[in-house]
Write a structure and sequence with these properties.
globular, Rossmann fold, 225 residues, 11 strands, 3-stranded antiparallel β-sheet
Length: 225
């Protein structure tokens, strides 16, 4: 899949990747960084940062490493310790991620080095990105992953759309994720598809439809009570 990926500039100047085989982008074309900040940082990380002394994040879909970079930046700003676990079935090759312009667009000193470190971290091994940010990247399929119970404070659900990867959006997957979360933990995602909302509600999550990022009317934030 890597060889067919195309780098595309989105509306906020940041890059995304286009996958011709499934006619899908990794991020919103209305702004990759704008979308990630809105959904995962503003509605996710900041919603739990005042609840917990340390935040254990689980990300579904490591992708380009953008969410990890933005989380590291926010964690440093708020001085919040983070243990970040991410799963990805199709890791990108360096020839792809190394040309992405996220550090340049964020304008944060040291972000280029952080982005390099995040993407270069060996798969399957926990490593320290900074003094308050540890990272574990899992090379595997979500459908075959069984996390420990009561571990995660925050979940970034950033898989490709339900119509493209339906097996990743199943109620059984969400039940497994629910069990892996602590009470008061939050899951955020861009999808507000009816089937997704119903599954999350059936499991027991408290549902919130929030204003979406540029180009999208709504997003979803759910809480484990």
């Amino acid at each position: 899949m890597t060889n067919s990926l195309k780098v595309v500039e989105t509306a906020d100047g940041s890059h995304t990747l286009f996958v011709p085989g499934i006619n899908e982008h990794y991020h919103s074309t209305f702004g990759a960084i704008a979308e990630s900040r809105h959904i995962f940082i503003d509605a996710g990380f900041r919603a739990v940062s005042d609840k917990f002394q340390q935040i254990n994040v689980f990300e579904v879909g490591f992708g380009t490493g953008l969410n990890a970079l933005l989380t590291q930046i926010e964690a440093k700003k708020s001085e919040t310790p983070v243990i970040y676990t991410s799963i990805e079935a199709n890791p990108l090759e360096k020839v792809i991620w190394s040309v992405l312009n996220y550090p340049e667009i964020t304008g944060i000193p040291g972000s280029a080095e952080m982005f390099e470190k995040i993407n270069s971290m060996p798969w399957g091994k926990t490593g320290s990105i900074s003094s308050r940010f540890d990272l574990l990247k899992i090379h595997g399929k979500l459908e075959e992953y069984y996390p420990d119970t009561g571990v995660f404070h925050l979940v970034y659900f950033d898989a490709f759309a339900p119509d493209i990867q339906p097996s990743m959006w199943s109620e059984s997957i969400f039940r497994r994720i629910y069990d892996s979360m602590v009470p008061g933990g939050v899951l955020v995602t861009y999808s507000v598809k009816g089937k997704v909302v119903r599954s999350l509600k059936n499991i027991g999550f408290k549902i919130e439809k929030l204003p979406g990022p540029p180009g999208k009317r709504h997003m979803l934030r759910v809480t484990k009570l």
